[in-house]
């Protein structure tokens, strides 16, 4: 009977010890799970922070590109304006030279008596039209220079 009681006592003690170990293991696994969850949360926060920083850098890069394109466009417009002004000045100079040449030719032909009244009126009309064109070109040049 002592052996049976002793065996039951040993079985009972071993069950208690085993249950305690199972409880410790479940407590350990719960702690590990909580640590794992905390680690995942931390990684998620870091990833989210890194994503925000990447978005911010991308936004700054796009803004810099936009400003660069705007500066290039303005430089191109200034260059185009300078070319237009130069072209208009050349056109005015050419028209004025043509006007002087026509006036000299008319005076020379008039003094030689080669111009009929009809030819003279046609030349005067051409000269008048050329003067008007020169005035218009000068106005356009003035507008272009104001833009500059």
Structural features, described:
With 148 residues, the chain is mainly alpha-helical. Helix content is 96%, strand content 0%. It is built from 2 helices and no strands. Helix 1 runs antiparallel to helix 2 (117-147). The longest helix has 111 residues, at 2-112. It is rod-shaped, with a radius of gyration of 49 Å. The termini are far apart. The model has no long low-confidence stretch (mean pLDDT 87).
Q: What's the main sheet like?
A: none
Separate helix tally: 2
Strand percentage lies at under 5%
Termini distance? 119 Å
Give the total of beta strands.
0
Task: Provide the structure class.
Answer: mainly alpha
If you compute it from the alpha carbons, what radius of gyration comes out, rounded to the nearest whole angstrom? 49 Å
Q: What is the ordering of alpha helices and beta strands? A: HH
Report mean pLDDT, rounded to a whole number.
87
Helical content class: over 70%
Low-confidence stretches: none
The general outline is rod-shaped
List keywords for this structure.
mainly alpha; single chain; 148 residues; rod-shaped
Give a quick precis of the structure.
This protein has 148 residues and is mostly helical. It has helices at 2-112, 117-147.
Topology:
Elements: H1 2-112, H2 117-147
């Amino acid at each position: 009977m002592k052996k049976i009681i002793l065996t039951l006592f040993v079985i009972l003690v071993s069950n208690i010890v085993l249950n305690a170990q199972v409880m410790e293991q479940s407590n350990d696994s719960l702690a590990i799970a909580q640590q794992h969850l905390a680690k995942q949360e931390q990684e998620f926060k870091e990833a989210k922070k890194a994503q925000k920083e990447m978005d911010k850098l991308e936004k700054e890069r796009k803004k810099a590109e936009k400003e660069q394109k705007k500066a290039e466009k303005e430089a191109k417009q200034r260059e185009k304006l300078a070319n237009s002004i130069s072209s208009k000045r050349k056109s005015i100079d050419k028209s004025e030279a043509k006007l002087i040449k026509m006036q000299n030719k008319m005076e020379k032909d008039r003094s030689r008596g080669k111009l009929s009244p009809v030819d003279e009126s046609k030349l005067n009309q051409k000269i008048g039209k050329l003067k008007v064109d020169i005035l218009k070109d000068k106005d356009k040049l003035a507008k272009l220079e104001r833009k500059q």
